[in-house]
Amino acid sequence: MSIKKEALRTNQTCPEYTLRLVVDKECPFDCIYCFQEGTNYSKSSSHENPDFLSLVDKFAAVRPISKIRLTGGEPLIYAPLLPLLKGLKRKFPSLDLGITTNGSTPRILQNVIEEFTDTPLHMNISIPSLNEEMFKKLTNTARLPEVLSSVNQLRESSFSSHANINFIFLEGVNDLELPEMSAFARVNNLPLKVMQLTVNEFNSDALRRLNTGSANQRLITERIQDLGYLPSQHPDSFIKDGHIIRVIGQVAPQTDQYFRDYKTFRLYYDGRIGICGDNDGIIRPINMDNPRQTFLEVVTEAEKFL
């Protein structure tokens, strides 16, 4: 069967997928828990800054997409960010489109908010601590004021009903800040996601020096319930006075179970595609002359895990 016929056939029968666009490797933070989106960042590539819009279009011709998240690095400092977002909105108007950011660039965030006031994006803003010293220890920066400014912007904008605060739970490090972080999220009327840490080759040494690791999900759940939150109708979700806290099992864990559950692929800034799973064999260079063929080959191989 030809590639085109195979793509058309399976596009009508397979589940919808999520794409994570790893748009850059640059970030103003140097977080000790960063897992680098599960892969070594290439030092150089002939395909850096690929045409993501064209690649997403070609992926969509192979398999249906329901959600796209821009990540990095820090996606808000990606130079062609606004043209990319506008293009995705234009080509895929019904797509669930969002960004995961550290909130370090409130000026750029404001530009995004103003550009998409009528069609807000989903926005996840990661905050490891509200304590300046702890924040500096975990991110190696002193930019907590900028992050708090970004939260204020989200709260006062049309994005407010589409935004979340992400809190990386580090047992024995920042875990005692959970009450303060939940109160902060509630005051700002933003749901809180408590993220179970992923430990991999990129952050294990730094975390070992801090004597921390991936906390048991049951411990996180118990801490949330100690704050008076009760289980809601959604799995791993808790509610108190209308405020929602969700427990995210692991941050983009490198497991094939994650791919089975969330059906997520990554398109990397250096011209590669991979699955959110632990099979490194399914991280491939994109054949820029025929990216659709590359996508079909990788997706077909990955779907063996479903």
Overall description:
It is a single chain. This protein is α/β, with parallel strands linked by helices and 306 residues long. The chain has one domain: TIM Barrel (Alpha-Beta Barrel), CATH 3.20.20. Helix content is 35%, strand content 20%. It has 11 helices and 12 strands. It has helices at 3-11, 52-62, 81-91, 106-115, 132-139, 144-155, 178-187, 204-209, 217-226, 256-262, 291-302, and strands at residues 17-22, 65-71, 96-101, 122-126, 163-169, 192-196, 230-231, 237-240, 243-248, 264-268, 272-275, 283-285. Strands 7-8-9-6-5-4-3-2-1-10-11-12 form a 12-stranded mixed β-sheet. Helix 2 runs parallel beside helix 3 (81-91), helix 2 packs across helix 11 (291-302) and helix 4 (106-115) runs parallel beside helix 6 (144-155). The longest helix has 12 residues, at 144-155.
Output the strand order for the largest sheet. 7-8-9-6-5-4-3-2-1-10-11-12
Report the principal-axis shape.
Answer: globular
Strand % is: 15-25%
> How is the CATH topology named?
TIM Barrel
Residues in helix, %: 25-40%
CA-CA gap between termini: 22 Å
What would you say the CATH architecture is? Alpha-Beta Barrel
In DSSP terms (H or I, runs of 4 or more residues), the helix count works out at 11
Question: Using only CA atoms, what is the Rg?
Answer: 19 Å
Query: Class in CATH?
Result: Alpha Beta
Number of strands: 12
Question: Which structural class best describes the helix and strand composition?
Answer: alpha/beta
CATH superfamily: Aldolase class I
Run of helices and strands? HEHEHEHEHHEHEHHEEEHEEEH
For the residues shown, what is the average pLDDT?
85
